């Protein structure tokens, strides 16, 4: 149901990202001119929140226009306008609902016991529903009207069923906003790495200026062409994968191959196996002796053919298999093959 949403047509809506990026850079410049530092993660989070909500709902929450927070030592940090702005209320509710959900997963199956008297997530959701419900109601009635006239876009029986069931649609839409934190963290870490590696920053700047120049907006083809940019993004995702830990459960008993020459491992059905992509991405036996260094060239020079090409599953920032990230093409351009299908 979700995959058509991530077609090449949709993910190349660079105009949306360009507009919000310009807004973010302008706010950054203004605040620096005032003599205050800027919290980059907060700034990027506002940029991704506005871009993601406009991409998904055709209307953004305008979190950039709520203004950037001032550092704690500034008298302006106490200003009330920030905390009462609808976008900040939305973001705060979103963060708190996510934190409560993370808490549930730590309790495993026993989590309902911790919420015997109330559903702690629903309690936090009302500012989110206040934003989404009117947009969704309008979209559903528009779709029903065009269907009655026989002009409805045929998206398949599943989508039609979902449209009848507005609540389930909301759940899907909120699920896509997963792309907000992953993208925010990846951009923040990329900026952090560029700040700490001025040589990489200057080479990346040269590539962008030579391929795009100072004024034009990059196209999908430009993105494919900027090999160093892709290497910088990949190297950031290697050292700081936005989903650093994950878990899978076996639905039937299975044997896992062990290290070469070792005995295979028996994994019974219904066993949870947690694993860490963060640790795997830093293993010297998989990536070489310099695994903990930030060096985008490892995705371009001999090291690529020595380590990654023969063993592609050592790099899993977007996971792999049927549940691979649906946003990876738009999110980071790791595989920019035409019409690339996720590995199954
Ligand atoms: C740097 C950016 C991103 C990273 C590192 C990332 C990473 C991931 C990972 C590791 C998963 C798999 C989770 C699992 O297997 O349990 C995933 C799933 C997913 N991602 Fe992303 N993601 C990014 C950006 C995005 C964006 C921008 C969107 C959408 C706008 C998005 C939408 C999704 C969706 C819908 C799934 C669930 C797919 C499914 O379960 O079938 N992601 N992402």
Automatic annotation (TrEMBL):
<dbReference type="GO" id="GO:0005506">
    <property type="term" value="F:iron ion binding"/>
</dbReference>
<keyword id="KW-0408">Iron</keyword>
<protein>
    <recommendedName>
        <fullName>Cytochrome P450</fullName>
    </recommendedName>
</protein>
<keyword id="KW-0560">Oxidoreductase</keyword>
<feature type="binding site" description="axial binding residue">
    <location>
        <position position="325"/>
    </location>
    <ligand>
        <name>heme</name>
    </ligand>
</feature>
<comment type="similarity">
    <text>Belongs to the cytochrome P450 family.</text>
</comment>
<dbReference type="InterPro" id="IPR017972">
    <property type="entry name" value="Cyt_P450_CS"/>
</dbReference>
<dbReference type="InterPro" id="IPR001128">
    <property type="entry name" value="Cyt_P450"/>
</dbReference>
<keyword id="KW-0349">Heme</keyword>
<keyword id="KW-0503">Monooxygenase</keyword>
<dbReference type="Pfam" id="PF00067">
    <property type="entry name" value="p450"/>
</dbReference>
<keyword id="KW-0479">Metal-binding</keyword>
<dbReference type="GO" id="GO:0020037">
    <property type="term" value="F:heme binding"/>
</dbReference>
<dbReference type="GO" id="GO:0016705">
    <property type="term" value="F:oxidoreductase activity, acting on paired donors, with incorporation or reduction of molecular oxygen"/>
</dbReference>
<dbReference type="InterPro" id="IPR036396">
    <property type="entry name" value="Cyt_P450_sf"/>
</dbReference>
<dbReference type="GO" id="GO:0004497">
    <property type="term" value="F:monooxygenase activity"/>
</dbReference>
<dbReference type="InterPro" id="IPR047146">
    <property type="entry name" value="Cyt_P450_E_CYP52_fungi"/>
</dbReference>
<dbReference type="InterPro" id="IPR002401">
    <property type="entry name" value="Cyt_P450_E_grp-I"/>
</dbReference>
């Amino acid at each position: 149901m979700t995959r058509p949403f991530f077609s090449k047509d949709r993910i190349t809506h660079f105009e949306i990202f360009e507009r919000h990026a310009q807004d973010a850079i302008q706010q950054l410049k203004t605040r620096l001119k005032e003599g205050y530092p800027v919290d980059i993660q907060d700034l990027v989070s506002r940029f991704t929140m506005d871009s993601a909500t406009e991409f998904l709902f055709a209307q953004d929450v305008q979190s950039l226009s709520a203004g950037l927070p001032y550092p704690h030592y500034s008298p302006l940090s106490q200003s009330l306008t920030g905390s009462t702005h609808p976008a900040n209320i939305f973001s705060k509710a979103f963060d708190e609902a996510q934190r409560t959900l993370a808490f549930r997963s730590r309790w495993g199956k026993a989590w309902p016991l911790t919420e015997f008297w109330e559903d702690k997530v629903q309690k936090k959701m009302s500012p989110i529903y206040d934003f989404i419900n009117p947009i969704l109601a309008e979209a559903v009635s528009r779709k029903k009207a065009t269907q009655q006239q026989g002009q409805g876009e045929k998206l398949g029986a599943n989508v039609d069923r979902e449209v009848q069931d507005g609540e389930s649609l909301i759940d899907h839409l909120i699920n896509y906003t997963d792309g907000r934190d992953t993208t925010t963290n990846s951009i923040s870490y990329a900026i952090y790495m560029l700040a700490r590696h001025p040589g990489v920053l200057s080479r990346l700047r040269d590539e962008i200026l030579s391929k795009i120049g100072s004024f034009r907006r990059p196209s999908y083809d430009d993105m494919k062409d900027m090999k160093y940019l892709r290497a910088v993004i990949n190297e950031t995702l290697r050292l700081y994968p936005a989903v650093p830990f994950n878990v899978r459960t076996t639905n039937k008993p299975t044997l896992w191959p062990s290290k070469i020459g070792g005995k295979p491992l028996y994994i019974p059905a219904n066993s949870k196996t947690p694993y860490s992509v963060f640790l795997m991405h830093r293993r010297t036996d998989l990536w070489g002796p310099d695994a903990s260094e930030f060096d985008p060239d490892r995705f371009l020079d001999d090291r690529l053919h020595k380590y990654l090409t023969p063993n592609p599953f050592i790099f899993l920032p977007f996971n792999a298999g049927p549940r691979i990230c649906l946003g990876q093409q738009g999110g980071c351009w790791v595989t920019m093959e035409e019409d690339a299908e996720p590995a199954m």
